[in-house]
Amino acid sequence: MAIKELESRNITTQCPHCGDTVTLIPTHTPIQSHDHLYFVGLCPNHSNRHCRPIFAVYEFLNDRITSRYPIPSFDASNLHESIPESIRLDYAEARRCQYSSAFKGVVVLCRRVIEAIACNKLQDKSKDEKERTFKLFKLIDLLKDEGYITLDLKETAHELRHFGNYGAHMQDDGLDSVERDEANDIIEITWQFLYAIFVGPYKTKELKKKRLEKKS
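Request: output the structure for the sequence above.
Response:
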């Protein structure tokens, strides 16, 4: 397969260097087996973020990259400092599950992250009069009512919640069938929450601080 044809395929992946989800730029003619392509690509951010070449394995059947090297580092310390450490730890573990194709683990951990975010921001409002933490559906609604998330994020969070609902029986927990695309969407949704509630406000505060410093 020529480079031009490979470029028309789904060669999107997470860059292990800058962390962005990107479409790779193939740099050499790929090596082909009966069901996979092996190629070296560059992240589009390589010139300004110094991302190094990536070795990737593309699968014909599902039109996707199945592996890439170096393996991304999913360590909590690499996540933004504005996110509480315990939440960073859970999200980093969810990313490791995603990379390992442990999709049920992705759902459970992301559901845990959303619940932890709610408890962190709502504090006492996350509990009833008997000091019991509200169910996740109530916590999500409260996050919207208190102005922490938009209506769109609220509705999206409820979709995530449906995947991770826990019932009295295994068949009721919503985890019997979690596909790769669903797990990827859930990871992205969870990151949107983390950015909207912790990272975005932190960056806005820092920008304002710098602007005021320049005026003084």
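Residues 76-202 form a domain with the Four Helix Bundle (Hemerythrin (Met), subunit A) fold (CATH 1.20.120.330).
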